[in-house]
């Protein structure tokens, strides 16, 4: 049931992505224009809303500041921390889960007569710990690292984000039988996929933090004071080879959790698929066009090293490639970018 729900959610995001890319431009003044504006406002946030025109007043009432992203991680830290404590007590201390969690677990999780394996119990506990640590790190980055602009998100997106981390933690908890351990204490069995998954998780988390720090520093002075909310070209770490590396790292973090669960867990791969489609949708037109197309050819290895990453994370389309070929000789790199490039080359 859970796998089907996550797969359906991923399909919904994929359909939205296809509609966004394939739908013809609506005629001015018609009902289609209003519906299109509502749809664009619903699925985009922050700088991805640029180019969609000024939203009408009634639509702006349904928008909240992008900095409210912080609330997602507050909810995740509290909820998934609570689930982690409950599962830890059940696995190691032989205590029972709260009755309301058992009812939810019974409705959404595995049958209590399912084959009981210590490795599966430890995998679920480990993934729930990784998810909680990820939420703690992201909360700390939102509070002390990231510099949010005046961007907005739709209230529906905001509500979905609050429910998302509740659903993800509950999904992990439902990967063990409803009776958990029947009073038996967990015998820890570390398997090869636990080592690979945790190693990949640490690797992706470090790179995501570095990339987010690079983005934040673009808006700060050397003393750490915020001096601008505009966007400029990032340099360093995965920005040298991947488009939207912070989103790519997020995807790798969820893949690492799938590996930690034992690779064969279909439900969590559906969660990864939902994350893949969702990040691909929100990365759409995330990277600036025009001037960055000219800077692209000067960067080491380009912004995207492989075509599949480019397609996944909203890289340049075939039309952009043709435009770059036509305009490379016609346009010059802006002075501010040229200085950064020369500095990078000399350094």
From TrEMBL:
InterPro entries: 3-oxo-5_a-steroid_4-DH_C (IPR001104), Dfg10/SRD5A3 (IPR039698). Pathway: Protein modification; protein glycosylation. Its EC number is 1.3.1.22, 1.3.1.94. The chain crosses the membrane at residues 68-88, 152-174, 186-204, 251-272. It is found in: Endomembrane system; Endoplasmic reticulum membrane. The keyword Nucleotide-binding does not apply. Residues 1-16 form the signal peptide. Its main location: membrane. It comes from the Eukaryota. Pfam families: Steroid_dh. Keywords: Endoplasmic reticulum, Membrane, NADP, Oxidoreductase, Signal, Transmembrane, Transmembrane helix. It is a multi-pass membrane protein. It catalyses: a 3-oxo-5alpha-steroid + NADP(+) = a 3-oxo-Delta(4)-steroid + NADPH + H(+); androst-4-ene-3,17-dione + NADPH + H(+) = 5alpha-androstan-3,17-dione + NADP(+); 17beta-hydroxy-5alpha-androstan-3-one + NADP(+) = testosterone + NADPH + H(+); a di-trans,poly-cis-dolichal + NADP(+) = a di-trans,poly-cis-polyprenal + NADPH + H(+). GO terms for cellular component: endoplasmic reticulum membrane. Residues 192-260 form the 3-oxo-5-alpha-steroid 4-dehydrogenase C-terminal domain. Plays a key role in early steps of protein N-linked glycosylation by being involved in the conversion of polyprenol into dolichol. Acts as a polyprenal reductase that mediates the reduction of polyprenal into dolichal in a NADP-dependent mechanism. Dolichols are required for the synthesis of dolichol-linked monosaccharides and the oligosaccharide precursor used for N-glycosylation. Also able to convert testosterone (T) into 5-alpha-dihydrotestosterone (DHT). This is Polyprenal reductase. It comes from Zosterops borbonicus.
């Amino acid at each position: 049931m859970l796998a089907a729900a996550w797969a359906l959610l991923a399909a919904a995001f994929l359909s939205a992505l296809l509609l966004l890319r394939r739908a013809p431009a609506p005629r001015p003044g018609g009902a289609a224009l209003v519906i299109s504006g509502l749809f664009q406002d619903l699925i985009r946030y922050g700088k991805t809303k640029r180019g969609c025109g000024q939203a009408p007043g009634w639509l702006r009432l349904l928008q909240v500041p992008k900095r409210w992203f912080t609330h997602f991680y507050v909810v995740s830290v509290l909820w998934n921390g609570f689930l982690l404590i409950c599962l830890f007590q059940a696995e190691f201390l032989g205590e029972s889960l709260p009755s309301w969690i058992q009812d939810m677990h019974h409705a959404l999780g595995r049958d209590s007569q399912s084959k009981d394996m210590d490795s599966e119990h430890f995998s679920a506990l480990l993934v729930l710990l990784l998810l909680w640590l990820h939420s703690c790190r992201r909360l700390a980055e939102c509070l002390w690292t990231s510099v949010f602009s005046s961007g907005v998100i739709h209230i529906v997106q905001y509500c979905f984000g609050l429910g998302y981390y509740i659903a993800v933690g509950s999904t992990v908890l439902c990967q063990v039988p409803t009776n958990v351990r029947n009073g038996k204490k967990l015998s820890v069995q570390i398997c090869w996929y636990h080592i690979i998954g945790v190693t990949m998780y640490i690797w992706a988390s470090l790179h995501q933090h570095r990339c987010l720090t690079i983005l934040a520093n673009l808006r700060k002075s050397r003393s750490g004071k915020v001096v601008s909310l505009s966007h400029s070209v990032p340099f360093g770490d995965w920005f040298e080879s991947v488009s939207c590396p912070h989103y790519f790292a997020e995807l790798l973090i969820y893949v690492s959790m799938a590996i930690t669960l034992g690779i064969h867990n279909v439900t969590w791969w559906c969660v990864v698929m939902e994350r893949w489609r969702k990040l691909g949708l929100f990365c759409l037109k995330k990277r600036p066009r025009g001037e960055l197309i000219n800077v692209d050819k000067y960067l080491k290895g380009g912004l995207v090293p492989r075509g599949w990453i480019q397609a996944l994370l909203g890289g340049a389309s075939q039309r952009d490639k043709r435009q770059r070929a036509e305009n490379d000789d016609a346009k010059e790199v802006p002075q501010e970018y040229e200085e950064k490039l020369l500095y990078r080359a000399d350094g």
